[in-house]
Amino acid sequence: MDRRRLVRWGAPLLALAAMLSVSSCAMNVCPAIAYMYGGPAVVEFDPALPPASAVESCFGDECEPVAVTAGRVDEWEVPQETPYISPDSIPGGEIRVLRIVASTATGVVVDDTFEIPILVEPEGVFGQCPGPFRFDTVVVEWDAERG
């Protein structure tokens, strides 16, 4: 009797399993959408820079830093526009490296490149697809004792 049930329900169960397998594969397919982020990169220093400090920055490793004006308390926004980004680059968030130069009354305390972290909003049925993104804050640690 068990064998008859197996023969009777085996084919429909196998068909159902195959259908679920195919549908789960279809749900895991991500759309071919390229997301762009045109907003600024935000830089924050830890510890905070003294009030009379100057900050220069630009997008890329080998770029020439340009003065950045302070935004909110101890935050500097580096816009994705010329002169901070190369004129032949598209301001879409594909350059994820900042060169940052910070100076206090005693001289240069930071001159380095930093990777820009990103925050991604996952998409898809199970959140398996990359979605829109934005830059997260670049936190620059520096030695206040030296500066």
Briefly characterize the structure.
The chain has 147 residues and is α+β, with helices and mostly antiparallel strands. It has one helix spanning 2-27; strands at residues 41-46, 54-59, 66-68, 75-78, 97-104, 107-115, 118-120, 133-135, 138-141.
Walk me through the structure:
- This protein is α+β, with helices and mostly antiparallel strands.
- It has one helix at residues 2-27, and strands at 41-46, 54-59, 66-68, 75-78, 97-104, 107-115, 118-120, 133-135, 138-141.
- The strands form 3 sheets. It has a 4-stranded antiparallel β-sheet with strand order 3-2-5-6, with no helix packed on it. It has a 3-stranded mixed β-sheet with strand order 4-1-9, with no helix packed on it. Strands 7-8 form a two-stranded antiparallel ribbon.
- A hairpin with a 2-residue loop joins strand 5 and strand 6 (107-115).
- The N and C termini lie far apart (86 Å).
- Mean pLDDT is 83; it is low at 20-25.
Taking the alpha carbons of the first and last residues, their distance comes to: 86 Å
Mean pLDDT score = 83
Helix content: 10-25%
Give the CA-based shape: elongated
- Share in β-strands: 25-35%
Instruction: Evaluate the radius of gyration.
Output: 26 Å
Widest sheet, order of strands: 3-2-5-6
List the main descriptive attributes of the protein structure presented here.
three-stranded mixed β-sheet; alpha+beta; four-stranded antiparallel β-sheet; 147 residues; single chain
Q: Helix and strand layout, with pairings?
A:
Elements (H helix, E strand, L loop, with lengths): L1 H26 L13 E6 L7 E6 L6 E3 L6 E4 L18 E8 L2 E9 L2 E3 L12 E3 L2 E4 L6
